[in-house]
Amino acid sequence: MDQPVYARPALLVITVLAAVLYTWGIEHSQYHTFYANAARSMTESWKAFFYGSFDPGNSITLDKLPGFLWPQALSARIFGFHPWALTLPQVIEGVASLLVLHRLVRRWAGVPAALIASTAFLLTPVAVGLFRTAVEDPAFTLCVLLAAEATQRAARNGRLRPLMLAGVWVGLGFQAKMLEAWAVLPALALVYLMAAPIALRKRLAHLGLSALVMTAVSASWMLAVTLTPGKDRPYVDGTTNNSAFSMVVGYNFLNRFSSLGISAASTGSVSATQGGGGGHGGPNGATGANRTGQGGPAGQYGLNGKSGAGRYGGSGRQDGALQGTGQKNGTGASRGTHHRHTGVAGAQGSQAFQGQAGGQAGGSWAGAKGQAGGGGGLGGGQNGWSKMFGTALASQTGWLYPIAAVALVCGLLWRRGKPRTDRIRSGFALWGTWLITYFMVFSAGSVGGHTYYMGVIAVPLAALTGGGVALMWRAYRAGGRRAWVLPAAVAATATWSAYLAGEFPSFLPWLAPVVGVLGLIAVVLLVLSLPGRAASGGRLALAGLAASLAAVLIAPSAWAVQIFNPSYGSSGMGAVGPSGMNRGHRSVTSAAPRIGQTPWGGGTARDIGAGRRGMGGFGGFSEDGKLTASQRKLLDYTTARQGSAAYVFATTSWNSASPYILGAGAHVLPLGGFSGQVPFPTETQFRQLVSSGKLQYVLLGGGRGMGSRFGGGTTTSTEITDWVRSTCTLVPATAYGGSDSAGAASTAPDVTGAAEGDATAQTLYRCVPGQ
């Protein structure tokens, strides 16, 4: 296809800018303290690689499908296990996503539309944050874009092969993000049914064959796990029945829609009775905080801006904060601030729940404004059907809502009466269906603080903006009533952008007025240069178009470039710029953490006390994964005495095991899975490990997994803990170079004395056969 002379240089500039934005500060990347353990384990053996084992001993998997980690693990095998090596695949996936989007829009709406769409996607804050973050969505976003590109090629000539390839890409997207990948199917199927120039029966047959391929690829890992005897593979996290299907359908899907009255109680999901799952880190997460605003079954934390019944306050009033026990240096006492209206929980530092290891007062547990409470602005916080219009999410991905909506309506209405195979109309149908489907899914489901979920929303918004501007510009130049649509769309988008910017008055206070002025200039120029007016003219109209693009894109651009600003940067949840705001005081109260910080707004990993260095907050990030001196001494002690045991020791939670896995690839057995509620190993299985000599040492304390923090009650982990304390022999801390504290052998004295005893000092026990 012939392209204008400026097309390739412009695309090259956009691509280079994307690479810069995504790689900026990559050398300061951090480990995701849950996922990075699996990535490390996956570099230790191909068995762990295939199953996505959390620990090198292959005892338990992640609570997700491992597909999104396969590129990270391969990168770590090639370059060594470093934080930047785990971030690099996301950068590559981001640049590839931008190029695929450009190709899709160019084939659909032309070169100018493609360049506008690529620029809009590049400058969407959530896209910048997404492709710098070691989570599931970068790989997922690329896969669904590739599926759309293959479907577009299939629909052009009614070809089966590219449609089958689209099924493969959706299946691979499933391996990265599970059932969320299937939400793109209505858009892909509609486009093929609308535009493929073949008979309906053949179109349906092609879609059926593609669906079979997609299903086979999607279910391949789950079937492989199901057909492998449980004794020969890791236990599937997130389940009570060791079923991959339970983990995917119940734990990671149905639990996300508890607000609709959907229950996963019969699916074998461990979080079926915990108030719905939102994943790692959100107040509606799999750890159990429910949607009524009270943390967990006992209302222990009161995270959603309402009164909690438990001891940690969080009443939604000022100073109703979770109290930490450490300041920046991990010593002394400090109190967070629970900001009025926003419900930002003031967890201290990177130990967001335990409040132990210090950070900046007022660090946000939620990681985003309105996340944990009745955040202000249209749509409130990140819960409820209006969450997508709330400033917490809209400021990251929704700047283009008005112009995309106008483009969709005009694209469908103005092309009515065209042949069924009309390429322009089918493109609007693709992006519109994509946008509406995911918009409804996220509105109904639990999002929590996971801003990076919105990357799949940024794609159709950018595409509709590019295609819509091209369509409206042609209508504008043609004159008539349709010519007024472009200035109206620009005015609406500028007004919406000014409103969003105004919700953060202490962050870039000049932004809202500048957007307003640019929008006004653009509208005036467009009106003056309307065809048929005395002042109309080509140059004036082009000036109006340039001002329009500036008015539409300057606000998201100003947020996106904050990754260069050490005061803000990007968070581990994919947010860029400020992530919290006190509407009562009309000032920014917390910002997205800089590179090197935890995503909850706490201190950097360097600020964490010696006993927990290398451990980010719940669902957070750690800086370098290095073991502290006391952790190294304990590991050396147990390793030297491991003998033929399969594990150097067991721990009561994944976060207690994390530093030893990240720092040394140690075969540590975590109890209870991510939530702390997984019945693996059972007490009987644990005793068998001891009696068979596969396990000798157990490290207790330092938290019991996330389940106990939310009123999880008695679990197999607590039963095992009680058995160990009553049966096994306490190892004095002095035996491995530690020090005794308050009668307990502490591996890290600075970790003791956690808030209200929620997390205890870590103590080492030795269990021998026959005890």
From TrEMBL:
<feature type="region of interest" description="Disordered">
    <location>
        <begin position="271"/>
        <end position="374"/>
    </location>
</feature>
<feature type="transmembrane region" description="Helical">
    <location>
        <begin position="207"/>
        <end position="227"/>
    </location>
</feature>
<dbReference type="InterPro" id="IPR050297">
    <property type="entry name" value="LipidA_mod_glycosyltrf_83"/>
</dbReference>
<dbReference type="InterPro" id="IPR038731">
    <property type="entry name" value="RgtA/B/C-like"/>
</dbReference>
<dbReference type="InterPro" id="IPR056785">
    <property type="entry name" value="YkcA/B-like_C"/>
</dbReference>
<feature type="compositionally biased region" description="Polar residues">
    <location>
        <begin position="324"/>
        <end position="334"/>
    </location>
</feature>
<feature type="domain" description="Glycosyltransferase RgtA/B/C/D-like">
    <location>
        <begin position="65"/>
        <end position="221"/>
    </location>
</feature>
<keyword id="KW-0808">Transferase</keyword>
<protein>
    <submittedName>
        <fullName>Glycosyltransferase family 39 protein</fullName>
        <ecNumber>2.4.-.-</ecNumber>
    </submittedName>
</protein>
<feature type="transmembrane region" description="Helical">
    <location>
        <begin position="483"/>
        <end position="501"/>
    </location>
</feature>
<feature type="compositionally biased region" description="Gly residues">
    <location>
        <begin position="356"/>
        <end position="374"/>
    </location>
</feature>
<keyword id="KW-1003">Cell membrane</keyword>
<feature type="transmembrane region" description="Helical">
    <location>
        <begin position="540"/>
        <end position="561"/>
    </location>
</feature>
<keyword id="KW-0812">Transmembrane</keyword>
<feature type="domain" description="Putative mannosyltransferase YkcA/B-like C-terminal">
    <location>
        <begin position="634"/>
        <end position="726"/>
    </location>
</feature>
<feature type="transmembrane region" description="Helical">
    <location>
        <begin position="6"/>
        <end position="24"/>
    </location>
</feature>
<feature type="transmembrane region" description="Helical">
    <location>
        <begin position="398"/>
        <end position="415"/>
    </location>
</feature>
<feature type="compositionally biased region" description="Gly residues">
    <location>
        <begin position="274"/>
        <end position="285"/>
    </location>
</feature>
<feature type="transmembrane region" description="Helical">
    <location>
        <begin position="452"/>
        <end position="471"/>
    </location>
</feature>
<keyword id="KW-0472">Membrane</keyword>
<keyword id="KW-1133">Transmembrane helix</keyword>
<dbReference type="Pfam" id="PF13231">
    <property type="entry name" value="PMT_2"/>
</dbReference>
<dbReference type="GO" id="GO:0016757">
    <property type="term" value="F:glycosyltransferase activity"/>
</dbReference>
<keyword id="KW-0328">Glycosyltransferase</keyword>
<feature type="compositionally biased region" description="Gly residues">
    <location>
        <begin position="305"/>
        <end position="317"/>
    </location>
</feature>
<feature type="transmembrane region" description="Helical">
    <location>
        <begin position="108"/>
        <end position="131"/>
    </location>
</feature>
<feature type="transmembrane region" description="Helical">
    <location>
        <begin position="507"/>
        <end position="528"/>
    </location>
</feature>
<feature type="compositionally biased region" description="Low complexity">
    <location>
        <begin position="343"/>
        <end position="355"/>
    </location>
</feature>
<dbReference type="Pfam" id="PF24878">
    <property type="entry name" value="YkcB_C"/>
</dbReference>
<feature type="transmembrane region" description="Helical">
    <location>
        <begin position="427"/>
        <end position="446"/>
    </location>
</feature>
<feature type="transmembrane region" description="Helical">
    <location>
        <begin position="181"/>
        <end position="200"/>
    </location>
</feature>
